[in-house]
Amino acid sequence: MSTTRQLRAGIYCRVSTTGQTAENQLLALRSFATARGWTVTEFVDQGQSGAKERRPALDALLGAVRARRVDVVTCVKLDRLARSVHHLVAMVREFEALSVDLVVLDQAIDTTTPSGRLLFHVLASVAEFERDLIRDRVLAGLRRARAQGIRLGRPKVHVDVGRLLALRTERKSIRAIAKALGISATVVAKTLRASASNPPSVLSSPGRPSTRQAVSG
Questions:
Q1: Of residues 16, 84, 184, 210, which has the active-site annotation?
Q2: What would the pLDDT profile of 56-108 be if each residue is shown by its tens digit?
Q3: Which of 83, 39, 88, 87 is nearest to 64 (CA)?
Q4: Distance between CA atoms of 212 and 195, rounded to whole angstroms?
Q5: 0.70 cut: is pTM over it?
């Protein structure tokens, strides 16, 4: 005679300030899990903002999910768990790939049921639609900027190549040259590489004004 395997639940709670308590969330989740005969591991984030994608207890919960120590994740509300629709959809996709279900008490979400699984397909479609809208807005903004003659991309940094090379011949470090010229070390390194590939005639020489060139910053 076969026996039903007891599911292992990871119950997750979060409160935003240290002055709040997660006890009300825990009581509801413990009661629900007990009624279903689940074994429980508790993950509680105290004083953690919902805007954070990374939280200590949430990270521990996801680690348990990936280690296959949890069969179902449960919380009281979606905003306790995820910081955005995209974050939620990404999390649920991972749960689905690992055959882990999600139960949200106050919003009657339960992916152990067909209707619960359907809801997350709808959420995934909404998230994809939102991404498409954002991409379309960005592209439209770029086209409008080009039509108005607005130059896009990083601004050009004007470099005194002659002085830069003179400092380099004094065995100054790239960091020291950058500080002396008021530019980034990346621009200094890029200019040195470009100068090394140019013939000597284009570089500054005694009696000639310092060559200046524009380098993308």
A1: 16
A2: 999 999 999 999 999 999 999 888 888 787 788 888 889 988 999 999 998 88
A3: 39
A4: 12
A5: no
